[in-house]
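hey m, so remember when u said the tokens were messed up on ur end? i reran from scratch. heres the input so u can diff it against urs
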Amino acid sequence: MEQRRRQREERRRQRPPARPRQRTSLQRRMHKRKAALALSAGVMGLSTAAMGVMPREPVRATGAVDIPLVRLPARDLRVSESLKQALIQEEGVRDTVYRDVAGYPTVGCGHLVEPHDGLSVGDRVSYDRILDFLEQDLREAEAAVARIAGDLPLFQHEYDALVDLVYNVGEGNLSPRKSPRLMRAIAAHDYEAIAAELQYRYAGGQLARGLAYRSDRRTQIFMNASYDDPREAAAGARLARL
């Protein structure tokens, strides 16, 4: 028995020290966060050292969505990586709180600053917090689409377009009072009519060119599963005419 006890003690001494579970869990979460951030930075053509206003870079569209093309109830779907890349490109990445075209304090990837965020125009935030805001806003947009569309069967790209719409204009603008035609189209499962109601081009009562391009892109995502930037197509057409 004494020999077995000594053997157990010897084996215990030879084992590498166990890492605390909390620390391991934290390291795993941080690794996932850094991986997601690397995706965002890669889409924007950035290094993690670059901060401030992030320049636009072309998104290399995959040409296919992330899951097989089968319609599923909206509440069962989640945003695709293709839409995340397009959304990040459209919103840009800014680490300083600024006012958007409608005058609202904004930071990160189009995150509208709320009172509980404790931020004011001119404040700077970390990349980790930008990522937190993005994840939070995407979850809220997904939940909003689930409330708005419910059991409506959607292809992944159709769902992505609706998530982008909520992310861009807010759930409050997608009500029977403010968007009656869209709500009727969803209730009737009329996909062509839904596509026709994805255009939101005005901010603060003014036509915004960026929103117009965003709307065109959203419509192409919904109708054709095309995540390409329409600005690139327009620029190519202008060059071809020269």
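this time it looks ok to me. Residues 69-241 form a domain with the Lysozyme fold (CATH 1.10.530.40). if urs says something different then somethings off w ur setup not the seq
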